[in-house]
C-alpha cells in the first residue's frame, strides 16, 4: 500500500472515481485526445493491456482528490507502469503530485521491482516538468489510441527506483 493517505479502490468506488474525474473534464482531452467518458470511473478499474491479469492492476484514491492507476509488472517483471495520475485542479501545484510519485516509487521498490514507467502527452507540460524534475528519463515515443479511436504521440519515461 502507498505510504501516504490513500486507499485501494474497489468496483463499488466507481462513482467516487467518476466524481473526482468530473472536477476537471478538460484534463481528458489533453491526455486521451478524447472527452471524459460518462463511465470513466468504471473503465479505469478494468482497462488494461490484453492478457494482463486484473489482480496486478492497482487503483488508489487519495482524499477524493487524486487517483493513481498502476500496473504491477508491466511491461516486464521488474517494471511497474503508471497508467494515470489524476489530481483535481484545486490541488495541483500543492506538492501532492510529487508526494504521490515519490510514495509510489518507494512502494514499487519495496515490492522488489526496479523501475517505474509512464507515458506523458507532449501537451501536458506541467506533468512533463514534474516527471523530469523527479528523475524520469526518456525511453521511447509511441502512438497511443484512445477509446474514441483518436491517436496521439506520447513520450514514454522511466525512473529507476531501486
Shape: globular
Structural class determined from secondary elements: alpha+beta
**CATH architecture annotation name of the domain at 7-114:** 3-Layer(aba) Sandwich
Mean pLDDT, nearest integer?
92
How would a textbook summarize the main sheet?
A: 7 strands, mixed
Q: How many E-type strands?
A: 7
Distance between the termini: 17 Å
What share of residues is helical? 25-40%
What would you give as the CATH superfamily of the domain at 7-114? Gcn5-related N-acetyltransferase (GNAT)
Q: Would you list the SSEs in sequence order as H and E? A: EHHHEEEHEHEE
Show unreliable segments: none
DSSP summary: helix tally: 5
CATH topology group of the domain at 7-114: Aminopeptidase
**Percentage of β-strand residues:** 25-35%
Output the strand order for the largest sheet. 1-2-3-4-5-7-6
Amino acid at each position: 500500500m502507498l505510504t501516504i493517505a490513500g486507499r485501494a479502490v474497489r468496483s463499488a468506488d466507481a462513482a467516487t472515481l467518476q466524481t473526482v474525474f468530473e472536477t476537471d473534464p478538460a484534463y481528458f482531452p489533453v491526455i486521451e485526445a478524447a472527452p471524459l467518458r460518462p463511465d470513466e470511473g468504471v473503465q479505469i478499474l478494468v482497462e488494461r493491456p490484453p492478457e494482463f491479469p486484473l489482480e496486478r492492476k492497482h487503483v488508489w484514491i487519495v482524499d477524493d482528490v487524486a487517483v493513481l492507476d498502476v500496473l504491477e509488472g508491466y511491461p516486464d517483471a521488474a517494471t511497474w507502469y503508471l497508467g494515470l495520475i489524476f489530481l483535481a485542479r484545486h490541488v495541483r501545484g500543492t506538492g501532492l503530485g510529487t508526494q504521490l510519485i515519490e510514495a509510489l516509487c518507494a512502494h514499487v521498490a519495496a515490492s522488489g521491482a526496479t523501475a517505474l514507467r509512464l507515458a506523458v502527452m507532449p501537451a501536458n507540460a506541467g506533468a512533463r516538468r514534474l516527471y523530469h524534475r523527479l528523475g524520469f528519463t526518456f525511453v521511447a515515443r509511441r502512438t497511443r489510441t484512445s477509446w474514441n479511436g483518436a491517436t496521439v504521440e506520447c513520450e514514454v519515461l522511466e525512473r529507476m527506483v531501486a
